[in-house]
TrEMBL record:
Signal peptide: none annotated. Keywords: Coiled coil. It comes from Colletotrichum navitas. Residues 45-79 form a coiled coil. This is 2EXR domain-containing protein. Residues 104-216 form the 2EXR domain.
Length: 360
């Protein structure tokens, strides 16, 4: 399982060089003016004002030059980031170009409820956490799928589980820095979400998850639920192909009722993921979600005839949603004997992962 790593933003060499150059030039100009003024005979006020205006103009030109250099640096960095498919750390602006952030001094006068709501709205939302068997360390180093020659359980899997690790891998997202602003921001941070997917299914070594907004995409189902606790996850996504028959729908509802006890929304994710160089995109590439329309085609189905007489061979999202809702409702209320409130709502989304430049 991937763990959240601390930000490590290395100093930008070009920004440091340009900042040092600016300091040197300004220091030289100040020293030259001071020496000339000290050694020269008294001059009129107009002459001094003219010299001051000249220095201010030179300083303005230097700022423009520095801005041009930093723009060129950002252009090169964006091109390189688009090529490798990974966003590079943002460079710190020179103090001469850093915009002044306006302050809102009346924020503390708002009621606590409004301030907490504002803090929560500032937290990241709609992030997709990809749950899959794609654990490179487990597959490459431990060879966990290989059986034990003696017929017993694989020792690598046993050691992994005893260490508190799950078989599954979850893509990591950075923990919001908003929590460091003040105690009130940290309280909003703790109320809105919690650390999930940690060791032994707990918070330790976990990833911060916004319960009402973030999405857990179950790309592959775990072979074992050891060290996995999904009881607090509200929004769960599955590949849309797992809901194209009655047997698949009831199987997914059993999984939701057994492990995702807080689930309020199931997202059928249509993932047409591709990249110029590969049909399998990196889970680290940013994901964009687009709601499916009623007439958007989903795929072939194997629904009961009494529910699909008018659908045809290829089902659209409107038909899929109607059939899935009906089968799920009947399974929960009639087979499981549970209340209709345990039936989550169903949403259709298309997810595209690609380089940031693809969405510009």
């Amino acid at each position: 399982m991937e763990a959240t790593m601390a930000d490590s933003s290395p100093a930008d060499p070009l920004a440091a060089a340009t900042s040092a150059l600016m300091h040197s030039i300004q220091g030289y100009v100040r020293a030259a003016i001071a020496a000339e003024v000290a050694n020269a005979p008294p001059q009129s006020t107009s002459a001094l004002q003219t010299r001051l205006d000249s220095v201010i103009q030179e300083n303005s030109e230097l700022k423009e030059k520095l801005k041009q250099i930093e723009n060129e640096r950002d252009t090169i960095k964006a091109a390189f980031s688009s090529y490798i498919g990974v966003a590079l750390p943002e460079s710190k602006l020179s103090r001469h170009l850093r915009p002044k952030t306006p302050k809102f001094s009346q924020f503390r006068n708002f009621p606590v409820e409004i301030r907490m709501k504002i803090w929560k709205l500032a937290l990241p939302t709609g992030r997709v956490f990809d749950l899959s068997m794609g654990d490179g360390h487990l597959s490459r180093v431990l060879r966990a799928t290989a059986p034990n020659p003696n017929g017993g359980p694989n020792p690598a899997v046993a050691i992994r589980q005893a260490s508190g690790l799950a078989e599954m891998s979850v893509t990591a997202h950075k923990t919001p820095k908003l929590r460091l602003a003040c105690k009130e921001a940290n309280r909003a941070f703790l109320e809105a979400g919690g650390f999930e997917f940690g060791l032994f299914g707990g918070a330790y070594k976990g990833l911060w998850f916004n319960y009402t907004e973030d999405i857990l995409f179950v790309r592959e189902e775990p072979r074992t639920w050891t060290n996995l606790d999904m009881s607090r996850i509200v929004r769960v996504a599955f590949p849309h192909t797992r809901f194209m028959s009655k047997a698949d729908i009831t199987s997914k509802m059993d999984l939701i009722l057994d492990h995702f006890t807080s689930c309020k929304e199931i997202i059928l994710m249509q993932t047409m993921e591709w990249d110029i160089r590969s049909c399998l995109t990196s889970p680290r590439l940013p994901a964009k979600l687009f709601p499916l329309g009623t007439e958007d085609p989903i795929g072939a189905h194997d629904y009961p005839k009494e529910l699909s007489n008018e659908i045809g061979n290829v089902a659209a999202w409107g038909d899929v949603k109607r059939v899935v809702e009906q089968i799920s409702r009947e399974h929960v209320t009639e087979v499981k004997r549970l209340t209709p409130g345990r039936v989550p709502k169903f949403t259709g989304m298309e997810m595209v992962r690609a380089r940031p430049s693809y969405f510009d």
